[in-house]
Amino acid sequence: MANERLQTEFCGISMASPIVLLSGCVGFGEEYTRVVGYSNADVGAVVLKGTTGDARLGNEPHRIYETPDGMLNAIGLQNPGVDAVVDDTLPGLDFSETRFFANVSGSTIEEYERVTKRFDDSDIDAIEINISCPNVKEGGVQFGNDPEMSARVVAACRAQTSKPIIAKLSPNQTDIQENARLCIEAGTDGFAVINTLMGMAIDSQTRKPIIGNIRGGLSGPAIKPIALLKVHQVYEVSKQHNVPIIGQGGITTASDAIEFIVAGAAAVGIGTALFYDPLVCAKINKGIADYLQQHNFASVGELVGTLQL
Known about the structure:
This protein has helices at about 80-90, 110-120, 140-145, 145-160, 175-185, 225-240, 255-265, 275, 280-295, 300-305; strands at about 10, 15, 20, 45-50, 65, 70-75, 100-105, 125-130, 165-170, 190-195, 195-200, 200-205, 210, 215-220, 245-250, 265-270. The protein contains 10 helices and 16 strands. An 8-stranded parallel beta barrel has the order 3-4-7-8-9-10-15-16, surrounded by 6 helices. The chain has one domain (about 5-60, about 75-200, about 220-305): TIM Barrel, CATH 3.20.20. With about 300 residues, the chain is an alpha/beta fold. The longest helix has 15 residues, at about 225-240.
């Protein structure tokens, strides 16, 4: 039976848990269902893999490299294109288990509009706008690091859908608070904070980059302190407008998740941790529920933004 303390709401969407599985880490919602003991019912929402207008092959290998307390990835948004996702993938998902969010990516504003409009006419519960992908050479990262351009993308997508929009913000920018403010004005309903940090790895023997794309997105526990700060900074802006945050970046334990909620996150994203413990979500749920009970919080919502300064 679901724990009532874990039940929460994000952008008007009821979720059984504050846990959101992050885009790029769980395919199109079906990959981990093959693991014995795993269930999508343990999470509040699943964000599907980044989707573009047309099919995309992604970057040359190597695409993934383990780093100290983290991982570099440069998949390059490989996906079958939005029509295939809507027509072939979504009908196979079990929407009775959890909520499903699309992740919209593009190289131009027009592509963002096209993909968003296609998802608007589907069963998807919300649309995450990926304006901050660091491992493609065009589009996302440039949009995400320019607050005015970020807002333009959000506004363009807002005009194409009535579904909740979640702007995924980049940590690789000068002023994340200004970006958040402009995205709120442009019509975002929520934020995902943060995307991966830009990084690289070098083979000292060959003196060549290990990642085929040269650069990639760094995730995992190594980026947690940065992610916590960015969530706190965005919360200072978003709380004035009741715009909720999915806090993400290095969460591997219930304690990590609680720290993000205290900093201002209404939900927490799990990604890299799944690669070495596919059953981690049930453990994090239990830890959050135990904490709420021990500290006399009736719900996750009561804990959000309770940082003592």
